[in-house]
Each structure stands twice: as C-alpha cells, then as structure tokens.
Specification:
Strand content: 25-35%
Shape: elongated
Number of helices: 6
Strand order of the largest sheet: 3-6-7-9-10-13-14
Number of strands: 21
Radius of gyration: 34 Å
Order of helices and strands: HHHEEEEEEEEEEEEEEEEHEHEEHEE
Distance between the termini: 125 Å
Mean pLDDT: 76
Length: about 300
C-alpha cells in the first residue's frame, strides 16, 4: 500500500483524530519559547550540534589537563630544597616572589601555583621571603599547622621542633593556627613565636631587643675571611645568662638546665635565634663551658657543666 493511500485511509477513519499542521510555523513557536536564534530547524540543530561538540572538546581537554596534573588523586607538587650545610640559596617563584632558603631547608608548592592563590609549604628549616605584590592575590605560607598570609612584604618563617618563628622585616603579615582558629598579626620589625605544645603565640620582640648586644658582622669588615653569601644577617651576640633564661621560657618542655650547672653568665654567645633548638644549643656549647645531653623525654635536651 502506498503512503498516500495510507494517509487517506487514516484521515477517513472516524476513530482517529488528525489535523493539519504547518511545521515551519510550529518550529518558530518552539524557537521563540526556548530563545533560539533564527534559522530553519535543520540549520539550528546543526548549530546546536556544533556548540555541543565544542563544549565536549573543552571538557575533554580539561580532563586531560587534570589527568596530567594529578597523580594518584593528588595535585603534583614541586619541591625546592637547599642541601648545602653552610650557604643560603636564593630561588625565584613563578609569580616573581624571591625566597632565600637557609641551609638544609625545604619548601614545596603545587604545579598550579601561578594560576591560583599563591601558596607554599615550609617543610623544613627557614625561608626569607620578598613577596611580589599582586592585588587580590594573597601569598600564604603553611608551616606546622600555621597559615601565614601576606599581600606584599618581606618576612621570615622558621620551622623548629617546638613551633614556628615569624619575623616581619617590612609590611604586615597575619598568622592563623588552623587547629584552634587563633589569629595574630606581625607588624614591621616584630618577631612572634608560635609554641605548638600550648598552641599559643608569644611576642619575642621586646625580649630579643633586651638580649641584643651588638650588630651582626658586616660583610665589608669580613671580606677577607667570609664572602657575602656566608654571612648570616640574623646572627646576634647575647649574654649567656639572659640567653639561657630566654630559651628556658621558649622551650620550657624541651630544655632543662641542671641546677648545679655553673657557667659564666656574662659570657658572650654569637647565635642565630631563628634557628632550631639543636642548632642554638650547638652554638652555646661551642662558645661556653656549658655541655648538652639528651633529656628524659624524646627530643628533650639537658644543659649541664662538669663538676669542679
């Protein structure tokens, strides 16, 4: 049976209801309802198909990018380390920020550092940071449960066994304990120590100023014996008595001084107090008659002197 005969028979059947329809007119109504651009049904469908194909391609490329960026479900990170024992090392980050790594220091950042919020992790040691200023793009450093945020300034972060030391050379930074939510600000020339055992920020600025005796060695005065790279700008000279009291307060749970220990409290000790405790103790024992030994608890240190 031909198509015309089938349609004629169907239209004459009283049990079925049919009516004539203008396809183009109905398509115009549909197009208007869904806010489609002008065009015939076929051309519009082709246009939509092209748009869908483009969108699918973009999603595919994004998926490929994510596949290469991620490894085992985690974003890949780039690690920067200074393996030298005595020299500092300067590195420039993708955003123009410069970082000076102290000896045996490690930092890391993810591979998307330059495209998202600027964030680095201090894994070990200490870093001096000169942040490149960028509006609406804060620079953050995470160290041992602390998040230190800055917009454009110079500051130093030191990771030690007992906590984190933050010193601001220029500008202003804020620090937040991610565990308790406690925050603090460190203004220019201020130094604050975060004691992780008691989850508390301690202002060291006044205490360090009273301990400070002389200026750090000048590279010009020492050019015959030391190069500029070897001079530690954070070295200061302190009286041994005040220095020991300061360390006892800062590292109360990790440092113990034997009561019978007798030493010259007026002895001068040259040391970088932004270093970790073992490094500081090593400087003290090498310049005084004070000796050190492991304490009763893990990572604890006892200071003593030989009996005379």
């Amino acid at each position: 049976m031909k198509l015309k005969e089938i349609l004629k028979e169907a239209q004459s059947d009283p049990k079925r209801e049919f009516h004539d329809m203008d396809v183009n007119e109905e398509w115009k109504k549909f197009r208007k309802a869904v806010n489609l651009k002008t065009g015939s049904p076929v051309s519009t469908v082709r246009s939509l198909g092209l748009k869908i194909a483009i969108a699918a391609s973009i999603l595919l490329l994004a998926g490929i990018a994510v596949y290469f960026i991620r490894s085992n479900g985690q974003i890949k990170t780039i690690e920067i380390a200074n393996q030298q024992n005595n020299l500092e090392e300067r590195r420039d980050l993708p955003d123009g920020t410069s970082v000076i790594l102290s000896p045996n220091s490690i930092l890391s950042h993810n591979i998307t550092f330059n495209n998202r919020a600027r964030h680095i992790d201090l894994v070990k040691g200490a870093i001096d940071i000169n942040v490149a200023h960028m509006d609406h793009r804060p620079f953050t450093v995470q160290a041992d449960g602390l998040e230190i945020t800055d917009i454009g300034t110079k500051f130093k972060v030191t990771l030690s066994d007992s906590g984190v030391i933050i010193h601001t050379s220029e500008g202003l930074v804020s620090a937040k304990d991610l565990q308790t939510g406690i925050t603090t600000t460190i203004t220019q020339s201020e130094t604050k120590f975060f004691n992780k055992s008691i989850r508390k920020f301690i202002d060291q600025t006044k205490m360090l100023n009273t301990l400070h005796l002389i200026s750090p060695p000048s590279p010009k005065k020492n050019r015959d014996s030391l190069s500029k790279e070897q001079v530690d700008p954070n070295i200061r000279v302190y009286y041994a008595g005040y220095l020991i009291k300061f360390l006892q307060k800062q590292y109360s749970r990790k440092l113990k001084v034997i009561r019978r220990a007798k030493y010259d409290k007026q002895a001068k000790v040259s040391v970088n107090l932004t270093s970790d405790l073992p490094t500081i103790i090593s400087a003290i024992t090498s310049q005084t008659n004070i000796k050190s030994r492991p304490g009763k608890c893990p990572e604890c240190i006892e200071l003593y002197t030989d009996k005379k």
